[in-house]
Amino acid sequence: MSARMFMQNLFNGLTLGGLYALIAIGYTMVYGILRLINFAHGDVFMIGTYLAFYGVTLMLLPWWLAIVVAIIGSAAIGFLIDRVAYKPLRESPRISALITAIGVSFFLESFAVVVFGGIPKSFLKIIPNFLKKIVTIGELRIQVLTFFALAIIAGLLVLLLWIVYRTKIGMAMRAISTDIPTTALMGVNTDTVIGFTFALGSALAGASGIIWAMRYPQIFPYMGFMPGLKAFIAAVFGGIGSIQGAMLGGFILGMAEIMIVGFLPQLAGYRDVFAFIILILILSFKPTGIMGKKLTVKV
Amino acid sequence: MSHEDLLLEVADLHVYYGAIHALKGISIRVPKGSIVTLIGANGAGKTTTLSTIAGLVKARSGKIVFNGQDITNKPAYMVNQMGIAMVPEGRRIFPNLTVYENLMMGAYNRNDKEGIKNDLEWVFELFPRLRERLTQLGATLSGGEQQMLAISRALMSRPSLLMMDEPSLGLAPLLVAEVFDVIKKINAEGTTILLVEQNAMGALKTAHYGYVLETGNIVMEAPTTELLNNEQVKKAYLGVA
Predict the structure, then answer these.
(1) Taking burial as the number of CB atoms within 10 A of a residue's CB, which of B105, B110, B172, B206 is the most buried?
(2) What is the C-alpha to C-alpha distance for residues B113 and A168, in angstroms, rounded to an integer?
(3) In this complex, how many residue pairs, one in chain A and one in chain B, have their CB atoms less than 8 Å apart?
């Protein structure tokens, strides 16, 4: 592989990894608090793209405003999913919530098929022309969109860390992840904090979906399945419950996927297999992931 | 005692855990400005009583009135916002938060920056060691330091009633004496205290009025001076014949 190809793949890997990271954070935050794998998370990724699509085509918003509205809409949907599907089961066995999560996922996908239609829609209309231009740096040819995507991803990751580590609600999120009843004893409405966590994770998933659709400009109701699954693997790989772990896991997984295909093009057909091999390996040898802590059983 | 002087009144409280009848009609009165203690053996229902007042456990029947308002089965965060803070059993420090953040969790619903600053100074006066540990994670503190932090965290909400669940548990004897001293100090500053203890001697010497719990019932209540001299209490709880 030439140096040029390597650099090209590096940019691709970073972007793909960043998109996985954005989704993985939502999985890991919800798991950190509720010990629940929110299987509907990948579908919020899909809903986000449709919101942006209809924002431009139906509501005739400028592209950037449509994206902002779609991200806020994704947050609202995440919040709503918690209120409607998970909150009533807070005191139930965890398996009930898990089954409900699968149900919510099926519901969102079927809802999208019925309301948006099963035929893929082109996302090209949503991408402004300047993002489609190509910049040449030496031998490298990179789309402006790649820089745009990387800048947005970096900005969102920094914003998220700032919220979690520098704000009052972030402090409550960290407190609640170790001890829900004691957090309530501090006068914190824990349901509000949990709802906020869902909204925050879903906003990131929505943003990830929109950038994804700009890079692979076709949207369809099941588009969230594979990225959602891979981001879940990234979260497990990084150590589920750890935000930094989810970020790292996302980037490693995205980079590995691109690089393996780049170095060994004959294996391109097995692209999706790598993620699952990683999952099996990590579950066999280090189930707590690279940054995860051993879970202590609460008495 | 007249009704207006009562800060907290618990009347005929019944609590079940599934089929287990944990509290079988508990009635407690906590006058403003006092220290009241509940003593009793393991499993007598002391922690359940505090948890039910705090809103963590639901009551089947009975009534809890605080400051003239019915707070029975109100969610825990509302009970705290009305002025009841709790030092939970086992301290329950947030291990992944710094000492400073733990204190700020206690002050979560306050926005008076000046008042929060003053109260921080107050808890540092009570426990000077906390000041040196401000940026450390809660998990890195020793048991005694965690207890100091748990008490300070509860005080940061400026409660009118402070409930403490076994604050002396697992502490070295010297620290136990310090904790009881601090309880008196906090009370002298105007905070009413409801204290649950297995260390009956320490609790009865600190409090003004005491209740003795046995398997979900109150079997005795009296001013602590009387309980300290009661033959039954001496034999069962104070370890003196």
Answers:
(1) B105
(2) 14
(3) 63
Q: Tell me what ipTM this predicted complex has.
A: 0.94
In chain A, residues with a C-beta closer than 8 Å to the C-beta of B95 are 178
Amino acid in position B18: G
Q: How far is A177 from chain B (nearest CA, A)?
A: 9
- Which is it for strands B192-197 and B161-165: parallel, antiparallel or unpaired? parallel
The residue extents of the domains of chain A are: 3-285
Residue A95 has pLDDT above 50, yes or no: yes
Q: Which residue has the tokens 């990724």?
A: A45
Do A185 and B56 lie within an 8 Å CB cutoff?
Answer: yes
CB burial of A62-97 (b: ≥16 within 10 Å; e: otherwise) equals ebeebbebbbebbbebbbebbeebbeebeeeeeeeb
pLDDT, tens digit (0-9, with 9 covering 90-100), for B2-12: 555 899 999 99
**Helix (H) or strand (E) run with residue B50 in it:** helix B46-54
On whether any CB of chain B is under 8 Å from the CB of A49, the answer is no
Give pLDDT, residue B237.
Answer: 87
pLDDT less than 50: residues of chain B: 1
Which of B95, B96, B109 has its CB closest to that of A187? B109
More confident: A299 or A169 = A169
Q: What is the mean pLDDT of residues A19-40?
A: 96
pLDDT at B4: 56
Q: Which of A61, A67, A13, A53 is nearest to A208 (CA)?
A: A67
Mean pLDDT computed over every residue of chain A? 94
Confirm or reject contact between A295 and chain B (CB < 8 A). Answer: no
- What pLDDT is stored for residue B241 in this prediction? 54
CA distance A208 to A63: 16
Please state which of the four CATH numbers 1.10.357, 1.10.10, 1.10.3470, 1.50.10 is assigned to the domain occupying A3-285: 1.10.3470
